[in-house]
Amino acid sequence: MRKWRKLFAQALIASAGILVALSGATTSVFANADGTTNVKNDKVTVNPAHGVTTNSIQGVDISSLQAELNAGVKFYGYNGKKQDILQTLEDSGVNYVRLRIWNDPYDSKGHTYGGGDATLANEVKTAKDATAHHMKVLIDLQYSDFWADPAKQALPKAWKNYTFAQKKTAVYSYTKKVVTTMKKAGVDIGMVQVGNETTKGMMQESDPAKYMQYIAEGVNAVHKYAPGALAAVHYESPSESSFAKIAAELKANKVNYDVMGATYYPHWNGPDSKLIGAEKVITKTYKKKFAVMEMSYPYTTDDMDGQNNIVGDITNPPFPISVQGQSDAISDVWKTVMQNGYGKALGAFYWEPAWIPVKAGWDNYQYNRDISVKYGTGWATQYAAKYYGDAGYSDQEENVNSYWGASSYDNQALFDPHGYPLQSLLTFKKMITNYVSGSAKKPVDRYKVAKKAYAYTFNGTSDNFTFKKAFALSSLKGYYKINKAEYVIKRNGKTYLYYHITSGKKSGWIWHSYLKKCPNKITKTVKVSYKHRYVVKNKKGSVYGFQGSSNDFQYVTLHYLKNYPKTHFTVTRKTYVKKYNGKTYLYYYVHSGNGKVHGYVWNGYLK
What we know:
Elements: E1 11-15, E2 18-22, E3 57-61, H1 65-70, H2 85-91, E4 96-101, H3 120-132, E5 136-141, H4 164-184, E6 189-194, H5 208-225, E7 230-235, H6 240-252, E8 259-263, H7 266-269, H8 272-285, E9 289-295, H9 323-339, E10 345-351, H10 365-375, H11 384-390, H12 394-403, H13 427-430, E11 435-439, E12 446-449, E13 454-461, E14 464-472, E15 484-489, E16 495-503, E17 506-511, E18 515-518, E19 521-527, E20 533-534, E21 542-549, E22 552-560, E23 569-578, E24 584-592, E25 598-602
Helix pairs in contact: 4-5, 6-8, 11-12
Keywords: Glycosidase, Hydrolase, Signal
Signal peptide: 1-33
EC number: 3.2.1.89
């Protein structure tokens, strides 16, 4: 993520514990002085996101969590009681967490650089808790001691004097160390990200022919030491042209990655068409999996801890800046990803939904700043400046000096500043829907009940419905025809074929496996050695063709006998048919004298 893109136009002055923002933008950054908020109970209407199922990645990046917990931040459940945040996330439908890891985010005297104190030790703690709550883990290896993005990819201090060959070895060894440490801790590693937003290079190397060798080493280590995990690469500002160029370079440099990850913030990287274009290139042209590694959206422009927000007012916001707008942004991104991936879309991650103030209220800025220096809870501390300066990023050193403090992301969290979950967090669960994906060919066989189960009605629209029991199948007697057939994609991501029947006042949808097909079968055919001539006994009946195999055929009406009252028919064979109801009937195969009428007739219609 381009962490500093909004910072260049801002200078921050701390005076008497009050943070002053010097900016031409008109933002409400000084609201909520005591940190109170009235939005935690704001209800949301969740838009259905077709293609999103419980199998999709519904992830969150909570890399700063341990720093927050160490500083005393508390989180609560929807009932208002204190609760493990991982339990709340699980209750909300989250099934994956993303955790960034920096090599050594401390200076020589042990001062933290901040940024959530994303050390391996801290992320192992979160990863273990996530695994205990049935979530997979994406490890985001940045191969830096602090934020790595297109503006900066500073080498870890320990690797500063390494040769190119030594750097390659270091990437492989470090990747091995992290994944083996996680595995020993019992972490369910689902994916490992090799590099973070390496659009312009990695580890202070901008030549693709070189830095992609670093990526290749990391990918190879993932495949070797975490063979069940996907190896991912990650780039920002997705578009069809940019991702086509990147994918071609990866292929040319023989990087055997599994997943292409994109940064996609609707207010910075939109519109959706750019994301769709990038995803199409990766999934259709290069046959790789695709995921959005970072997205978020503000529910307010208010500041809640004294630290200016990285996103304040947005010109022409793609969604309302509200809890509802936040929910809409989530469902839109997931829908876009899952519907445009040619079967290779994985899902997305919401970035830092729990990075809330340590002590809510903008008049607590100095407290939050001091706590950040102690626990690393803020965006940065003053000690990160020298790291960037030593790496040759003088502009980033200047940014840190003017912009270190508390969280600048609290207005994009999915928890209010006191740790209570917003209703937008429930979007992860609520955007998963049952929906009709298309009509199936209506079967013409007869059916009967095969299992004790239920017929259902679909309550809602074909785009978003719930199942409601209509009646027990045990109440059905006899044989039934199907009047409609549809494919239903259920919340678990699997497709089911449902048949609709009507029996008297009963009407409902039945999973096809609860019905048993009752076909017509030919049990015996006897050729007639002598030729009898027959005429129609009455005006009932038809001449049929048998369509299908001898063990499963349908009747096809060819002629109506009432139209041939005086025609003489010649019988050439006798065929015994066991019909769907289990009874056996004798049919004659006949033809008229001129040969224009021929087919099967039930023997009772002829004399």
